[in-house]
Design goal:
This protein is an alpha/beta fold. Helix content is about 40%, strand content about 25%. The strands form three sheets. The chain has a seven-stranded parallel beta sheet with strand order 3-2-1-4-5-6-15, sandwiched between helices.
Length: about 350
């Protein structure tokens, strides 16, 4: 029996998820546009597959009729989430994805009432970085219930990015400057704010980026002011600042397509296994309230792609076991602030 539909299974992250799912006894129905790739992958695992475009609503709905839920892994999600989410609403199947893109989160949140009426859950951001950071935000809100400001600082150590992640970044580069202010999403310039943050071995520069947590943490905690920062080398920060001038020249469709084509030529599919095993991610969250109250916590997890395989498979297992909340959900709303804590290599430390 097929447990769930895994669309985009032959991408770098999708392959890792298939490995983890099979290891944990699940049998996903593999799916994607490229029949040759999907057939070869399915043969390796003795799994069933379906090849179709998301624009083929007949075949999409037919595939969803065979399962209870979908794990959507085909990005850039700004171009793919809507077709899959609408199909899930039509067929009353649970929707989960691994996106980190704010527009998709906001659009899916607007479908909350429809999802509740259909009795299904819409849970975007079921991987890295949203699951760990969302759980951290919920943990900090519990520590300081009066918090009105949340800052997230993130540093990846010893890993890298996949082609799919790089292409999604290119597709969304005109949205990279995004914060939440007084409950509203606000566009700010690239590299709007550069700060210093100590992740444990001295201060390093961090730069503001429009991570998905600007969206999800608001729904999880109600905190109205949210900023997210990532540790980058000085050269990368300088490039991000240059995007204030160069950006408009690169935001058109032709430029984006050329940049994405270069990714296929010059970027490996993703980090190798050795780098993934040695890599880790460090999150530091800080909340403050109007009276000067403050709480901070540090979270260490496996590197991003390993983390995504672990969290997505765990979430799909819970859905298949009947544990879900209808409507739009974030990871911590659906499964609590300690969802991330069950995995090997995860540590959380409360700071002053």
């Amino acid at each position: 029996m097929n447990n769930f539909l895994l669309y985009g299974s032959y991408g770098y992250t999708g392959q890792l998820i298939v490995d983890q799912a099979v290891k944990e006894g699940l049998r996903p129905l593999l799916a994607g546009r490229d029949e040759g790739k999907i057939r070869a992958q399915a043969g390796q695992y003795n799994l069933e597959y379906r090849a179709f475009s998301l624009n083929d609503t007949t075949r999409l709905d037919s595939a969803l009729s065979e399962v209870d839920a979908v794990l959507h892994c085909a990005g850039p999600f700004v171009h793919t989430y809507r077709q899959m989410a609408e199909a899930c609403l039509r067929t009353k199947r649970h929707y989960v994805d691994i996106s980190g893109e704010i527009p998709g989160f906001e659009a899916l949140a607007a479908l909350d009432a429809q999802a509740k009426e259909a009795g299904i859950m819409l849970l975007p951001g079921a991987g890295y970085d949203v699951v760990p950071s969302d759980c951290l935000a919920a943990h900090l809100k519990e520590r300081l219930p009066s918090a009105t400001h949340f800052r997230l600082f993130l540093r990846g150590v010893g890993a890298g990015v996949s082609r799919g992640t790089a292409k999604s970044a290119i597709e969304n580069m005109h949205r990279q400057g995004m914060i939440r202010r007084d409950g509203q999403l606000v566009q700010v310039p690239p590299a709007w704010n550069v700060r210093e943050q100590d992740f444990g071995r001295g201060y390093v520069k961090v730069v503001s980026v429009g991570w998905g947590d600007v969206s999800t943490a608001y729904y999880s905690t109600g905190i109205p002011n949210i900023e997210t920062y990532f540790a980058f080398p000085a050269s990368t920060i300088a490039f991000l600042r240059s995007m204030r001038v160069l950006g408009p020249l690169l935001y058109n469709r032709l430029a984006k397509n050329l940049l994405k084509s270069s990714i296929d030529l010059f970027t490996p599919p993703g980090p190798n296994e050795e780098r993934r095993k040695k890599g880790l991610a460090i999150f530091i969250g800080e909340v403050i309230d109007p009276n000067g109250g403050r709480a901070a916590s540090k979270l260490i997890t496996p590197e991003g792609y390993t983390c995504t395989a672990l969290t997505t498979v765990e979430i799909m297992k819970r859905i298949l076991n009947g544990t879900y909340q209808p409507g739009f959900q974030t990871p911590s709303l659906a499964y609590g602030k300690d969802l991330i804590m069950q995995f090997d290599g995860v540590k959380r430390e409360d700071q002053l």
